[in-house]
Specification:
Layout: E1 3-13, E2 16-21, E3 32-33, E4 36-38, H1 45-57, E5 60-61, E6 65-73, E7 78-86, E8 89-90, E9 101-105, H2 119-129
Parallel strand pairs: 1-7
Antiparallel strand pairs: 1-2, 1-4, 2-3, 2-9, 5-8, 6-7
Bound molecules: 8-OXO-2'-deoxyguanosine-5'-triphosphate and magnesium ion (MG).
Organism: Pseudobowmanella zhangzhouensis
Pfam family, one: NUDIX_4
Enzyme class: hydrolase
């Protein structure tokens, strides 16, 4: 099965992260996520993240810090998530495609339901604020 490469943005302001809810009809729908999406063939990961954050949450990204890369097999789909922290951006993030959005304290992220692959992302963020 082909691996789907996904650029994922952890949008951070102080100790809060902006998350959105995946539309029900999509893969892993109904769960919360860090905004992002598939890299297109003619793009770098950086470019893919800038485009996805513009399309999904309406911000302009000015800086990306690598956090981790996760490979996960959902059975029906194999993904490689390239997760970056975004602290430098302009505009106020909001669900630009009608999806719910929320600023959540890092310590409260574990109260939200995320796709399975996200467990390690949340663990790593928690380690950072400990
Ligand atoms: N954006 C995002 N995707 C995630 C997360 N965790 C996780 O397993 N995924 C998976 C779900 C999807 O299979 C894939 C992302 O694809 P996507 O549906 O967001 O892609 P996209 O925005 O380009 O949308 P489209 O091409 O389907 O319109 O990565 C996460 O935190 N954020
Ligand atoms: Mg997406």
């Amino acid at each position: 099965m082909k691996k789907v490469e996904v650029a994922v943005g952890v949008i951070r302001r102080n100790n809060q992260i902006f998350i959105t809810k995946r539309p029900q009809n999509l893969h892993q729908g109904g769960k919360w996520e860090f905004p992002g999406g598939k890299r297109e063939a003619d793009e770098s990961m950086d470019q893919a993240l800038v485009r996805e954050l513009r399309e999904e949450v309406g911000i302009e990204t000015h800086g990306q810090l690598p956090l981790l890369v996760i490979e996960h097999d959902y059975g029906d789909k194999q993904v490689v998530l390239d997760v970056r922290i975004v602290e430098q951006f302009s505009g106020e993030p909001h669900g630009q495609e009608g999806q719910l959005g929320a600023w959540v304290a890092i310590s409260a992220l574990s109260d939200y339901e995320f796709p399975e692959a996200n467990k390690v992302i949340i663990e790593k963020l928690l380690e950072r604020i400990r």
